[in-house]
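Lecture notes, continued. The same structure-token format from the folding unit now serves as the input rather than the output. Read the line below as a description of shape only.
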């Protein structure tokens, strides 16, 4: 596999974050790994947000998602130019009080060529069912996107006094 350097835009808002300061609590892991789709938000060349859906999960302390086809698609072009990305996840269950629980994870992406089927097979258990494999087997190598997490916020047990809306 070959890692593609997505670089950092030359500006003040691109400072590197110490990943050790972001704690991924068990409730956040539970929500992300419950099979809810990720809303992936990238930034277009003019700063316009672009939203797409993806299967996503954790790979140690990073988020991971993958795609097989059109490895020059909108979100990938955006991430190659500007690695900033946000993913949001909305809980399936709701107590009926307040907002529906959700979590937003913001970070920076690294794109790696190949390995998409392995990632999708690993995620299939959450999205299809225990022991499942991704149903399409004759697929191109695709790309894998890892997200180094900078901030976690939302509505739920992971909410803190400094959470953003």
């Amino acid at each position: 596999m070959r890692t593609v350097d997505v670089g950092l835009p030359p500006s003040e808002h691109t400072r590197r974050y110490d990943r050790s300061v972001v704690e991924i609590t068990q409730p956040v892991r539970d929500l992300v790994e419950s099979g809810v789709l990720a809303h992936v938000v990238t930034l277009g060349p003019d700063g316009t947000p672009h939203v797409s859906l993806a299967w996503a999960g954790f790979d140690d302390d990073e988020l991971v998602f993958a795609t097989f086809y059109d490895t020059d698609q909108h979100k990938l072009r955006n991430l190659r130019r500007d690695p900033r990305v946000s993913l949001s996840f909305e809980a399936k269950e709701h107590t009926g009080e307040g907002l529906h629980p959700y979590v937003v994870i913001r970070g920076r992406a690294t794109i790696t060529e190949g390995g998409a089927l392995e990632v999708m097979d690993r995620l299939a258990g959450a999205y299809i069912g225990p022991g499942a494999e991704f149903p399409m087997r004759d697929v191109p190598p695709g790309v894998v996107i890892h997200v180094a997490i900078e901030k976690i916020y939302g509505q739920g047990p992971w909410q803190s006094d400094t959470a953003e809306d």
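Point for the exam: The two ends are 38 Å apart (CA to CA).
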